[in-house]
Design a protein that fits this description.
Largest sheet: 6 strands, antiparallel
Distance between the termini: 81 Å
Helix content: 25-40%
Shape: flat
Order of helices and strands: HEEEHEHEE
Number of strands: 6
Structural class: alpha+beta
């Protein structure tokens, strides 16, 4: 019976993966160094409206979805936390930010005045109104 004398280091694949990661990091820096802020050169008219918490619904596992009612210059609208932020609010975050029924937060509406940007930018800011 022939004895297996070849040895393959388990660290070699990990070193190769790390080298690829470092290389891609430097490539990203090289190609993105000239990218500018997408809002640079644009001028907006910014207005802040109150967004009132009208419902907090538990979705289990210490998470909740929050519903806001906002009245802007374009009328009434309902905002949903999970749609605005892409995830549910944790119960810890609700407590830290003071998100409770009836509380009011800032809803920023920016209308383009000058430049080549989105015509309207909206942000639900979790800052007290």
């Amino acid at each position: 019976m022939k004895k297996n004398t070849s040895y393959k280091s388990p660290a070699l694949p990990l070193i190769a993966i790390a080298a690829l990661g470092v290389g891609s990091f430097f490539i990203q820096i090289l190609f993105n160094k000239d990218k500018k802020d997408p809002l640079e050169g644009c001028e907006f008219d910014k207005k802040i409206f109150p967004a009132e918490v009208i419902a907090v619904k538990s979705v289990g596992n210490k998470n909740s979805d929050v519903f806001f009612l906002v009245e802007t210059d374009q009328g009434m609208d309902t905002l949903v936390y999970s749609k605005e932020f892409g995830s549910y609010a944790s119960d810890d975050q609700l407590q830290r930010k003071g998100i409770t029924l009836g509380e009011r937060f800032q809803y920023h509406v920016q209308d383009l005045i000058k430049g080549d940007c989105n015509k309207r930018v909206t942000v639900l800011a979790l800052e007290k109104y």
